[in-house]
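Exercise 7.
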Amino acid sequence: MTFLAGEPGAWRLDGDGFTVEQLRIPAPQLHIRETSVYLFSAGRERLMVDCAPADDPSWPALEAELDARGLAPADIGTIVVTHAHPDHYGNAHRFQAAGARVVLHRRDLDFHRVRNGDRAGYRERTFAWLGSQGVPQDEGHAWLAARMEKMSSRPLNPDVLLDGGEIIPVGPLRLRVEWTPGHTPGHVIIHEDAHRLLLLGDHILPTASPNIGIDQDNPGNPLPNYLASLRGFVERADLVALPGHGHVFDLVARSRQILEHQEERGRRVLRAVEAGARTAYEVRPFAWDDATWEGLSRGLRVNAIRTLAAHLGRLAELGLVVREERAGLEAWRAADGGTGDELVEPGEVDAAEHD
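Solution. The predicted structure, written as tokens, is:
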């Protein structure tokens, strides 16, 4: 991982008739070790962006943070979930039971139901897809077993479905929803324009690169649009970047750094194909050395192959590689005349990505 300087403590804004607080909740069950919840308060109105994992010690820690402010779950009126990963929606059902409404993008409700409504089917489809990327059967079985253990069975039944573009009021504040697919199909970020706040979920993180990859259950390649989104932030030094994990950070520097990281990975993938690698699995040693790969959990290796598949697809869009079908494999070869000039010069590479 690449670490940037930042304040170790939680962030807070006190305004005229409102407060916004970052509650940094321990989550040792995650490889990133903590998660952030954002509490908006204006008089008796209270809204939270994300609500932490449901497991111990995260839920008791969130309850303690609320109790320290004289609050209980019943005092929270709205939960906005940035995306349907359990470290962000885990306690939604608890707040709903206490009277809150839960808000989620409709694409992530579909994403959640496809994964959790038929877990055996999801496992079979993912295993078949991994096989098409060249992953040997024994490794695919082991990776999926680890991944399925981490998948949450917690309920997620939102009261309001978003499309992007909505305005959610909290006292004098207006929270503007922007749909930013990539990390998940329905990921959203939240703008508060009057104070230039940007709540990023997992779209951009200060200490890890969010996983952006191909998913067999979702059409298209999210990587090109994700990179375009990052390019839009490299000029936005005016925004306060509030991540779903970790400290407030320099949005311009970090956006540029992740762009360079992704472009360098693209160059490595292209070099791999030029050297004779034909599948995403064969590309892997060019993207992660053996020591780094051994340090990745087996469940995260599924993400790694998804990432490489996305880069291969982007290289094909740029005309640098050509897709071929070979006995059920999604195979690739270098395009005639490609130079890789479309990719920027390499920068520092993150060692790990966040699921």
